[in-house]
């Protein structure tokens, strides 16, 4: 990470036509903490907090886990908020409206994961997120360059969920 930060800093110093943000996806542990310590997390421009294990916790435990993670000053975005994999794995047993309320309160951005295998957050929750003022980020969940094109699916879901340009993080300028 330190070498990556050095490279990003050098590129940002040299290039004036674009800016590279330093970001990372951090795992939300079962107790709601993030899997990197504060000294690492505070050096990133953004942190996507996501669950990658322990999918079958009891409803109240899973819910509390997510809410605690969103209270972290370093959790910028809640990644794939229900953890669903279409036709393969149901989402976590959580109250998504309450998660949206919490996101609006903490300022945590909610990811609309554009992977056609996820499409998570469900479009039916997007209108509620808009009403509550919770900002959405459309992310392709790309694990290779070809996956960047999947942002297209996320834009379609955002439109279906009544999202407008002002509701989407990705439409903003770098300083905003």
Task: Give the biggest sheet.
Answer: 5 strands, parallel
The ordered string of helix (H) and strand (E) elements is HEHEHEHEHEH
Q: Point out poorly predicted stretches.
A: none
Given the C-alpha coordinates, what overall shape results?
globular
Ends apart, CA distance between termini? 25 Å
Structural class: alpha/beta
Q: Assembly state here?
A: single chain
Strand content: 5-15%
Give the beta-strand count. 5
Number of helices: 6
Going across the major beta sheet, what is the strand order? 1-2-3-4-5
What fraction, in percent, of the residue positions are helical? Answer: 25-40%
Average pLDDT over all residues: 96
Radius of gyration: 16 Å
What report would you give on this structure?
The protein has helices spanning 2-14, 38-41, 59-71, 96-106, 123-132, 151-160, and strands at residues 23-27, 46-50, 77-78, 109-113, 136-139. It is α/β, with parallel strands linked by helices and 176 residues long. The model has no long low-confidence stretch (mean pLDDT 96). It has six helices and five strands. Helix 3 (59-71) runs parallel beside helix 4 and helix 4 packs parallel to helix 5 (123-132).
């Amino acid at each position: 990470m330190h070498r990556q930060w050095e490279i990003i800093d050098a590129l940002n110093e040299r290039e004036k036509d674009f800016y590279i943000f330093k970001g990372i996806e951090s795992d939300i542990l079962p107790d709601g903490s993030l899997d990197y310590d504060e000294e690492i997390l505070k050096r990133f421009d953004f942190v996507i907090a996501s669950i990658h294990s322990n999918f079958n916790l009891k409803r109240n435990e899973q819910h509390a886990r997510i809410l605690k993670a969103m209270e972290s000053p370093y959790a910028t975005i809640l990644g794939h908020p229900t953890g669903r994999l279409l036709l393969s794995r149901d989402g976590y047993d959580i109250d998504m409206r309450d998660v949206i309320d919490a996101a609006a309160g903490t300022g945590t951005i909610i990811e609309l994961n554009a992977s056609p295998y996820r499409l998570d957050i469900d479009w039916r929750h997007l209108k509620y997120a808009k009403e509550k003022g919770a900002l959405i980020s459309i992310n392709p969940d790309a694990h290779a360059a070809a996956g960047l094109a999947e942002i297209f699916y996320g834009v379609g879901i955002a439109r279906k969920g009544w999202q407008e340009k002002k509701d989407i993080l990705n439409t903003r300028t770098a300083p905003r």
